[in-house]
Amino acid sequence: MHQRPLTFFPLAPLPRRQTDTRTQQRLGFSGWRSAIELRGGQPRDGWFIARSVLSEGMNPLGLQPQRFLVACDRDEAAGVLRPVGFGQLRPLSKDALELASMYVLPQYRRRGIASTIIRALLDRETQRLASVPPEQGRRVVFCLTVGSERLYKRHGFVELDPFAAPGDADTVRVPQCLRFEILAGRVVAGILRPGEPLSLLCCRLG
What we know:
Layout: E1 7-8, H1 21-27, E2 37-40, H2 46-55, E3 68-75, E4 80-93, E5 96-104, H3 113-129, E6 140-145, H4 149-153, E7 158-160, E8 172-173, H5 176-192, E9 199-204
Parallel strand pairs: 5-6
Antiparallel strand pairs: 1-8, 2-3, 3-4, 4-5, 6-9, 7-9
GO molecular function: acyltransferase activity, transferring groups other than amino-acyl groups
InterPro entries: Acyl_CoA_acyltransferase, GNAT_dom
Pfam families: Acetyltransf_7
């Protein structure tokens, strides 16, 4: 059976956000005040990332720690930062990224940690693109989710019909690699979370 190409329709750029000096100094880009600290992913995070991703039935490919932001809780007694969550922006094509591998330990959920990671990832990439000509750079960000649509919509994402018919000349196609991920993800979601559909969302960076 012939399938229509996956597409999405043009989106407005994300609004600029205020800079938090403490987080900017720590990470090199804008952030938000929180009891949880963010840092860049390191090789030693690889096992925690891989184990957590597999536990949630997420795509286990492309888990390069250096692409991740890791949320850590400071253990004052032990004097260490313990990773409690993470996320990454993964390249899909010459003009698109995927906000992927979002995870927070169950006991740390509903504290705004996922939102902090998402906003920091998008803000870092937006700042990086400020020095790139408008016609260049990966300015489109996709994400796949099961049951967390409201979280991503709060950050400027809109839900898409992955099998919508092509629109006008400005319509951008979903990268081929993401098409395969959607199909595989629907199978996994049907097993692990029956009755909850896999959703495709997208935003455009300014």
